[in-house]
Specification:
This protein is α+β, with helices and mostly antiparallel strands. It is 34% helix and 15% strand. The chain has one domain: NADH Oxidase. Strands 1, 2, 3, 4 and 5 form a five-stranded antiparallel sheet that branches. Helix 2 packs across helix 5 and helix 3 packs antiparallel against helix 4. The longest helix has 22 residues. The termini are far apart. The protein binds flavin mononucleotide. Flavin mononucleotide binds next to strand 4.
């Protein structure tokens, strides 16, 4: 087993408050998602996905609730999802075009590994559900960063499948659970280009 990341030290171990590094700054300043059309083999294998998730789960999490969980699709499991997606689309959208149905049947062929990050808040807890859902979003982004740092390209998609009652039922989501993201991981068959970036100055007020 190739170890991709250092292990976390035991609970209570004194930690560095910062890890200043030019490499990390460059990594963050230049990160990019890959196009969902350009994710090819190889993707991370099961052991590698486990390591990525271990690091991805190292996010801010108010009152340590770990309000998220993961469903990983690789190999033949992707086809099970594709078939279900096509059937569910037929049922939920009877006027779906042949193209839409064919797209549904190919959704998980677009990358070797797809991690569904499920927001799984404790609705009875005093930590607001909103904060728990934000933590799930942080996991999605941290998973992308972890994958990029370990050499895989990826993108965070939601699309109709993240909002479909049929897909939620097929995935076994509870009433309060939602898909936070479907993280597609693989190897970019062509490099991305820079895209327009927000005018951060225009949306920032220093007081
Ligand atoms: C919650 C969330 C859902 C997204 N869903 C989609 C999607 O369904 N389809 C899509 O093309 N991009 C989607 N994106 C955008 C891409 O993941 C990506 O951020 C965008 O293409 C810009 O690339 P960048 O991450 O390199 O800035 C989503 C982003 C977020 C945060």
């Amino acid at each position: 087993m190739q170890k991709l990341f250092p292990s976390a030290p035991a609970t209570g171990t004194p930690m560095a408050a910062t890890n200043a590094s030019a490499e990390a700054r460059s990594f963050l300043a230049l990160r990019r998602s890959s196009s969902k059309r350009l994710l090819a083999e190889p993707g991370p294998d099961q052991d590698q996905v486990s390591q990525l998730l271990y690091v991805a789960a190292r996010v801010s999490d108010h009152r340590r609730l770990s309000p998220w969980r993961f469903e990983v699709f690789q190999g033949a499991a992707r086809e099970h999802f594709n078939l279900a997606a096509q059937e569910i689309l037929k049922a939920e959208k009877p006027d779906a075009s042949a193209q839409e149905l064919s797209d549904a049947a190919g959704l998980f062929n677009r990358a070797p590994t797809i991690v569904i990050v499920i927001s799984s808040p404790d609705t009875t807890h005093k930590t607001p559900v909103w904060e728990q859902e934000l933590s799930a979003g942080a996991v999605c982004h941290n998973l992308l960063l972890s994958a990029n740092a370990a050499g895989w390209a990826g993108c965070w998609l939601t699309e109709w499948v993240s909002y479909s009652a049929g897909i939620s039922a097929w995935l076994g989501l509870s009433e309060s659970e939602r898909v936070a993201g479907m993280i597609y991981l693989g190897t970019a068959s062509s490099p991305p280009q820079e895209r327009m970036r927000p005018d951060v100055k225009a949306i920032t007020t220093f007081r």
